[in-house]
Amino acid sequence: MLRVPIEERPDWRVTANEFGFRFHTIDGEEYWTERYYYQFSLKQIERDLEDPTEEINQMCLSVVEDVIKSDVLLEQFAIPQAQWAFIRKSWQQRDPALYGRFDFSYDGKHPAKLLEANFDTPTSAYECGFWQWVWLEDNVKRDRIARGADQFNSFQEKFIERLIELAKTVKTNILYFACSVEGGDEDYGTITYFADCAKVAGLTPKIIYMEDIGVDAQGNFTDLNDYVIQWIFKLYPWEMMFHEDFAQYLNNDTLYIEPPWKAIISNKAILPLLWEKYPHHPNLLPAYFADKKHLLNESRGIVKKPIFSREGANVTIEKNGTILTETKGCYGEEGYIYQEFYPLPKFGDDYTVIGSWIIGDKAAGLSIREDCSLITKDSSRFIPHIIL
């Protein structure tokens, strides 16, 4: 695993804007970076990332089965009791899932360690599935990257194939794609990309903001034209939906992507349960709820994470009682989990996290993010990669 310097394409910003990638710069700071790239061997990808991604996915599904059967565990996940039957029904009828992303600490030499699972509303999909592939093709054509170079990136292909599979299970060809107005260019850009993929899959996509969804007299969700929404992809977290005014209508006939049971995998409370069920697995880190955090080794460091935290918010890293770094945010009232600190690999002044995507049950590509901090945030830079 190497970080290799390369010259930027002089026209990439113009091309990015033409392709709808308008969040390549956020608040004046670069988000997409192509001044260098990461290089992996095929063995590193297949053995150290692809295989563990698919294995951990199956492990997570096994834990979901355990949680579904237990009121005590559902309570530990801070899921409102009013939604337990809704989630159980979704799991028991095997509502199909589309995609997810595991975040790993991986240095190319040691086993990748799972930091968390983003399995409800993971972003950076456009950057992974489309834009970094454009970057690779452009640089190969310009003879700046070897013609034999490849990329661990079947995201778009698998995403479209999965949509085609899901379409066979529903009675409508119309698939709504929703995000919140507050999600800004990144969320809107993501659902626009997914809507384009849906067109290729033969579906009729419709884009709508969460704030514009209504409810009719029968309790069905409707669009601005009062058409009933039968099938929807929502880039809006389940834990937030459970506390919205419309939560009482969730258990209607709407089909959701991602399904309600994803509220379990996307919840950081799954990390202690994974460690309990698969102790000392080479790709897992010790993790516990508050009542057992004393089992962690303070000399190695402890990471305190809110159960619902997103984009690195409200995370604290301590070592021997000293805070190494922490972030602010609006999470924490729901409770915390505690995970052994496992440093991200450092290249120059930057720390690197590997996002490994899964579509259905198959590993599908990498998102690599960098930050000068040990905690990866929404503003952390996206870096392309190659296999050589």
Properties at a glance:
alpha+beta, globular, 10 helices, 388 residues, 6-stranded antiparallel sheet, 22 strands, 5-stranded antiparallel sheet, 26% strand
Taking all Cα atoms into account, the compactness measure Rg is 21 Å
Shape: globular
Report the portion of residues in β strands: 25-35%
The stretches of 5 or more residues where confidence is low (pLDDT under 50) are none
Please count the beta strands (DSSP E, at least 2 residues each): 22
The assigned structural class equals: alpha+beta
- Major sheet description: 6 strands, antiparallel
Number of helices: 10
Mean pLDDT: 96
The helical percent reads: 25-40%
Please report the distance between the alpha carbons of the first and last residues. 10 Å
